[in-house]
Design goal:
Layout lengths: L7 E5 L8 H12 L6 E5 L1 H11 L3 H16 L7 H11 L7 H10 L12 E7 L4 E5 L4 H8 L9 E3 L2 E4 L9 H6 L4 E5 L14 H22 L6 E4 L10 H4 L10 H19 L5
Parallel strand pairs: 1-2, 1-7, 2-3, 7-8
Antiparallel strand pairs: 3-4, 3-6, 5-6
Helix pairs in contact: 1-3, 1-10, 2-6, 3-5
């Protein structure tokens, strides 16, 4: 969409677990071209990537984020044997992992403890269980907010903040371009986990049923939000560089721990997004 220069927002979507590594490559392409946001919005894994760039919007900051993804690969954030995970599920009856590992990783990686102290204004969304609605965190403890946004049901526990329980923001707003408009953005770069351009297929296995339903809802809202954007807003949906978007089997809860090709995903998205930005002439106003 053509538009006039104005406040720039990075919108980082959720819904893909290790596929979120694509967003790191997109961030690298943007920052090295001198495109720095005035606002960063994130959902789920996009909240993890988004808060990192909001804390340090430089190439070195993105390189440190690459290190965080490598640390996730090496750590036991989603580790443990099948027995350990089943034991956690039997004990909690709601999730396979605690969030202590991810909390420690985020605490070590981020230079500040509060959202309002980040270098770039940042917000992330989570789903409130009690209110059955989306909730935006724009202030307060960074790690609590990001954990709430990234708490995938069944995998991580809900996060309690001030007596209210929150789960993954992708349930209510997976790619929050509408929030960027509400906050006055005139140029929006959409960073996503992939598969937006792949036709859906009927589920074949029990674990695919929920994924199909979620993906329909996710795409339906995103397409609707894009269609409702004012003509003055300049929107860029960056490519992942994947030759073949992932199938449901790559996104199932059976594969969420597979971070073995994180660096390949980052590199593919970096090359594809850099080419896109070069072709579209998007840069510093």
């Amino acid at each position: 969409m053509a538009g006039t220069p104005g406040p720039t927002a990075f919108v980082l979507g959720g819904g893909g677990g290790p596929l979120g590594a694509h967003e790191v490559g997109m961030l690298h392409a943007l920052i090295e071209r001198g495109i720095v946001p005035d606002l960063v919005l994130g959902t789920s894994v996009g909240a993890i990537n988004g808060v990192a760039v909001a804390a340090d919007p430089t190439v070195s900051g993105v390189e440190r984020l690459t290190g965080v993804w490598s640390a996730i690969d090496r750590s036991d954030v989603f580790g443990g044997s099948v027995l350990r995970r089943l034991t956690t599920l039997a004990r909690t009856r709601t999730h396979l992992h605690g969030n202590e590992g991810l909390r420690a990783l985020l605490s070590d990686a981020l230079p500040t403890g509060r959202i309002e102290d980040l270098a770039i204004p940042f917000q992330c969304v989570a789903a409130s269980i009690e209110r059955a609605s989306e909730h935006w965190f724009a202030a307060g403890p960074v790690v609590d907010a990001v954990l709430a946004s990234a708490s995938v049901p069944g995998i991580l526990p809900p996060v309690e903040i001030d007596g209210e329980h929150f789960i993954d923001g992708g349930i209510v707003n997976s790619i929050p371009v509408s929030r960027a408009i509400e906050l006055g953005a005139q140029r929006i770069y959409v960073l996503h986990v992939g598969r937006l351009d792949r036709p859906l297929e009927p589920p074949r296995w029990p674990w695919e049923v929920g994924l199909v339903a979620f993906e329909i809802a996710r795409r339906h809202r995103f397409v609707g939000d894009l269609a409702a954007l004012p003509e003055s807003v300049d929107v860029h949906v960056l490519p992942t560089g994947q030759q073949e978007p992932p199938r449901y089997s790559d996104l199932s809860q059976l594969r969420y721990r597979d971070t073995s090709n994180v660096r390949e995903r980052i590199a593919l998205a970096h090359v594809a997004s850099a080419r896109y930005l070069e072709q579209h002439g998007s840069g510093v106003s």
